[in-house]
Amino acid sequence: MASTSANMSQEEALRLFENGGFFFIPNLPAGFEFGIDYNSWKTGPKFKGVKMIPPGCHFIFVSCSGGQGGQAPRIGFFHYFQPKQLLLMRTFTDLVDETDQEKVERIRLDLKNLDQYLGAYPFENSKTWFSLTYLIDGALIERLEPEIKRISAQCDLVSKEFEELGASGQRVDRQNPVRVRYSDSQGLPIMHLKPGSEIRFTAIPSADLGHCTVSERTARSMDLGFALRGMLATYERPKQLLGELQFAYICFLVGHVFEAFEQWKLLIRIFCNCEDALGELSDLFAEFIRVLHFQLKMTPQEFFVDIVSSNNFLAMALFNFFLLIDSSDSASVQLKRKSAKFKNALSAKYGWDFDSVPDEYQPVIVE
């Protein structure tokens, strides 16, 4: 892991060393993948962590080498670093925080001697990372992260019998002569997500259509303002929901979590189908454009292909979004200007035509 401090003046490097955060991970074997944010490296034998971490939200992850030259799924976590904070992992195998403050303080007092084992945070990428996470704070991380505080690309599953019987369900003895096994209609084991391992994304409210007329049902199916307001009601500030959009994006971009990709798409669909909220929440929609602009700008080509090829999801969602803003009488002038600028930029970069109505884009009547 190369140090970026060689490209700085001594004064600047010292300032960053004294005010930035530190992350220590003990005994991480050489050859592992270690990453912070969207930077990753193969570890060497002397590697013990990262220094000069800018204050704010960061995502740290590790992955061991898999068979036949591959990599095992990443396991990582979000952390909001305070200035000068030192975060010590008890062990690399489960990424558990060290709670023994005496150990933490001993390392803090020995930082100068440990400097040779620490890679410097790559500051050339810090502004870009901030543009992807500037709405994620410590409170949002605490709300959304799994209860086990670790995020993995591989689902942590447990069998139904283990859920109901625990370890005793695995025993075969005089008291338990038959091992209990639950299976589905195809004879496969019934598996569930391990409690506490799922990311706690905000649930999408469902529309209550029981007492609606046909026209009201049609309006509810096309306009998702009710869903947006329902999700916003769970937050203290509207922009925190955009922080969740950023959180989901980082989870699938860096953490490779498919469920986060699905939440990201759901949130975009909601923001792009809220005609009746454009006037009331113009500032929020303008910020949504800013968030999405940075995300599309930084999405690697291999991820971008997946995003746009999923039933042309993104182009269709944005076509509707721009159409609603263009035709709205309540959207603010600032929102209309920002929308037009974003639309033109996407058309120029990707060749998307947002001015012609696609053949498949027809309203659906809900009976």
TrEMBL record:
Name the UniProt record assigns to this protein: Protein AAR2 homolog
AAR2 C-terminal domain residues: 201-355
Function: Component of the U5 snRNP complex that is required for spliceosome assembly and for pre-mRNA splicing.
Domain of life: Eukaryota
Cellular-component GO terms for this entry: spliceosomal complex
Phylogenetic classification of the source organism: Eukaryota, Metazoa, Ecdysozoa, Nematoda, Enoplea
UniProtKB keywords: mRNA processing, mRNA splicing, Spliceosome
Family in the record: Belongs to the AAR2 family.
Any GO BP annotation: spliceosomal tri-snRNP complex assembly
Organism: Trichuris trichiura
Record note on quaternary structure: Interacts with PRPF8 (via RNase H homology domain). Component of a U5 snRNP complex that contains PRPF8.
All residue ranges annotated as the AAR2 N-terminal domain in the record: 20-146
Pfam families per UniProt: AAR2, AAR2_1st
